[in-house]
Amino acid sequence: MVKRPSKPRTAPLREPNPPDIRGGRRRPPDPQQPALPFDPMPDRIEPCLALLKAAAPSGPDWIFEIKWDGYRLALHLDHGKVRIITRGGHDWTHRFPTIHAAATALPVGTAILDGEAVVLDEMGRSDFNALQQALGGRSGKRSADEAIFIAFDLLHFDGHDLRGLEQESRRHLLEDLIPAAADGGIRLSQEIEGDGPAIFAAAAEHGLEGIIAKRRDEPYRSGRGGEWVKVKCIQSDGFIILGYEPGSGYGGIGRLLMAAMKEGKLQYVGGVGTGLSSRSAAILRTEMDKIVTKKPAAPTGRKLEAVWLQPVLVAEVEYRGWTSDQKLRHASYKGLRDPDEGGEVFQLRGDRG
Prior knowledge:
- By secondary structure, the protein is an alpha+beta fold.
- It contains five helices and 19 strands.
- Strands 11, 12, 13, 14, 15, 16 and 19 form a seven-stranded antiparallel sheet that branches. Strands 3, 4, 5, 6, 7 and 8 form a six-stranded mixed sheet that branches. It has a four-stranded mixed sheet with strand order 1-10-9-2, with helices on one face.
- The protein is globular.
- Residues 1-27 have low confidence and may be disordered.
């Protein structure tokens, strides 16, 4: 299903036979050519975020990719020095040794790559729970040797800020830096050729989380401005854990009791009884035992046996939809959001149902 596009480039990105601009491979400068000014390398760039849509867009204005399920990262390279920065601005360089090693081998002097750290399952799909376990769970200190970096944008390249370039040109430069066949610690998020609705249907058939659509002619803008769109095959969002009902499941957890935000207050949205493994349940139970309290942070109805928690743990939950009374349908636990990243909590609308 996934392949590089066969369409020709709309315009050459470099003049014929230019000096090679990649670090470590420079030719002597041509005195007849004007020197391009260098842009200072930013310490951090706020990421472009995809806007959630119910249906995939259609038409030639869009570029399509798989939606990867992991941790959003920016990979900073500066003449051999590597920094791996999370979406929240934390330095996690030490936690991704495989990505770090692969970054040092890239043939470039300075660069900033936008992408996702993932752990792949046996089918090549990203597995968020496996990534969390590799990192040691919430507040974990382990490094994730099996995590790789899926690169999907290039924001700075050998002294030049690329954010003002259109998406397609940035994409071509990224393909020059990371070949489509790369299969090591840094890989290319390949463009998918076809129309949005058909690509989305294929993604759902293959059990993927969803797809990303990017406007071909737009520059890179931080925030959620609509230049990128995400369409999910399976809904997945962050919810507060209010408490749990004891049971015979892993870690003595029968069902997690979840809440979303609505008009600035927590609202109970039902329970999650599946998705826990022995390992993830042990990690979760360790965290929950630290924050037991006497009363729930939001009304949940009569639950006499429940153990209540301070509302500080944000869980990633997959679900298939909503009931008419604003409860999650067919929900499954995926893992805890990392506290360093200040996980977003799902916002209920008044018309959700």
